[in-house]
Amino acid sequence: SGFPRGAVCSSDPLWETRYGSATPRARCKPQKDGSPERKGARQPPMDGAELSCHTGALTGMVNDIEVAVIGGGLVGLLTASALQAQLPSTSLALFEAESHLGEQNSTRNSEVLHAGIHYQTGSLKHRLCIAGNQAWRTLASRFDIPLRACGKYVVATSSKEQPRLQALLTHAKRNRVPGFRAATAAERRSLGAQVRIAAAAFFPSSATIDTATAVERLDAHLSNLGVPLLRHSNVLSLARQRGGLALELAAGEPVRARVVVNCAGLGAVRLRRTLGLHALTDHWVKGQLSLDPV
Questions:
Q1: C-beta of residue 105 within 8 angstroms of C-beta of residue 77
Q2: Cα separation of 200 and 209, whole Å?
Q3: What is the rounded distance in angstroms from the CA atom of residue 204 to the CA atom of residue 265?
Q4: How far is CA 241 from the centre of its chain?
Q5: What is the pairing mode between strands 199-203 and 92-95?
């Protein structure tokens, strides 16, 4: 058993924002052509941007599926998108604990696409940073996600800092960071109006991306394909059973899935422990930005 194509329902928060809080929740019934029929709700434009699946409208449908993606952040949404593209006939659903997609790490960060300057050469973080920087540019073009290719200057504010800058450039070359160069005289003069400067380098591959829009675009993309995106669906634990895994939800009946992809972010380690997998542990750190006076 799987999901009927076209069973796409309105997400309450987005519906209320764009069509009024008094709008009743839509009830979805797939038509013969796969498109959804909506009863008891005002008809929104069918462009996909306002449409997403809601747990309540799918009760009874989602109990035996082939693939469950746990976590509705960017990693979960991109995973679901890739699986849907490669396995279009596979019954797939995404489970998100919050009322909105991308509510945690995905939209609570600097939104910077890093160049890969500082990481240990050959480390997973280094390799994923370089590859991910380019991958996001492709995704931004495909899904019309705002991306600001502004680049980044790294500045030595005194002659004492110049050896550190040179060491950083040597490491960046070792990491194969693309396109970096010394700042021009004109750039140094411009920077000098803002900060004391002895030397500087420019890294063009650094950029920023609008993560909230990225979440919205992926939401619309998957919803248009009929992939259920189940908000308010907190997966508490996993249990092995014949032919797959059982997902225990905070509300509703358990779900059976042949394959589970754990994209639960900060809850991923806790979730895997429910299967008796204890090799990984959470390592909490605090990021702190320190600005020295110029």
A1: no
A2: 24
A3: 30
A4: 30
A5: unpaired
Residues 84-99 have pLDDT tens digits of 999 999 999 999 999 9
Within a 10 A sphere around the Cβ of 225, how many other Cβ atoms? 17
Question: 92-95 and 64-70: which strand pairing?
Answer: parallel
For 190-241, write each residue's pLDDT tens digit: 999 989 999 999 999 999 999 999 999 999 999 999 999 999 999 999 999 9
